[in-house]
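Good morning N.,

You mentioned wanting to compare the apo and holo forms, so I went ahead and generated the holo version with manganese (II) ion. This is what I fed in:
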Amino acid sequence: MNYSGMSLRQTEVDLHAHSTASDGQLSPTQLIEKAIGSGVRLLALTDHDTINGLKEAREAAVGRNIQLVSGVELSARWCQHSIHIIGLNFDAEGYSLTNGLAQLRQLRTQRAVAIAEKLEDLGISGALSWTSKQVLSTQITRAHFARLLVERKYCRTIQQAFKKYLGPGKLLYVECNWPPMKEALDWIRASGGCSVLAHPLRYGLDVTQLTQLLHEFKTAGGDAIEIYSGTDSSGEIMICTRYARQFNLKASIGSDYHGETQRRSRLGATCPFSVPVQPVWEIFR
Ligand code: AMP
Ligand code: MN
Ligand code: MN
Ligand code: MN
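and this is what came out, ligand included:
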């Protein structure tokens, strides 16, 4: 499918959204309905480390006024920092990616068990079965544990749960040895997809570090950076646009939508895309 022929406006494109296959609040079918209602014509479902929601989303999109692109948001490591790499428009049966996803599933399960054990030690029982029931797949995220803490009234908000318990260095934080960035990029490429560095400004890196990350991302075969991920200011969009040009990367846009009550982003990105950077969907293979 050649998406460059669709003459899309940027407000009709959303290449970053979550469903109940990971930590989103809408099922894949509900997400498709919501996207259509929001005027999105090109959507990627990008759940954390899983493509389990893709089949249902595809079925829901058949015959509707929306194109669904295969997507995933991979957890990866760069110099001890956790980063997110989005894969787009890949072959969902591709061996390399499915094999990588199996590795990530194992890491997530191990970490979920470890977090549940910490909770058990604090006298909070049944965390693993509670969080497991929240997901279609086995991709339990910290967001699910945050919801448990809110549900059981240990915290008032999800943000507070991260700030007090689940953020780096906090009581319930468990380090996860995500695969190196290069591996995640190779899995996506080998399965015919494009790779995007998600929300580059959210990793807490200084300019020198981010420049180095982008240099290594490009050298390792990365295709694009997200210049809008749901909540960025026009200044932040400009910074990312400059990085895209500096490193000769394409631009991706998405909302990072998780549901109506989580975060502030709305489905359907609304980035003023008037900058001279090539959209990533024009190079979908
Ligand atoms: P994980 O990939 O399991 O470490 O979980 C990360 C997910 O938790 C992210 O994708 C967000 O959806 C959510 N998250 C991370 N930090 C925060 C935060 N400070 N406030 C709310 N949600 C967060
Ligand atoms: Mn998430
Ligand atoms: Mn992310
Ligand atoms: Mn995301």
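The pocket of adenosine monophosphate (ligand 1) is lined by residues 23, 48, 75, 141-143, 158-159, 162, 258 (CB under 6 Å).

Happy to go through it together on a call whenever suits you.

Best,
F.
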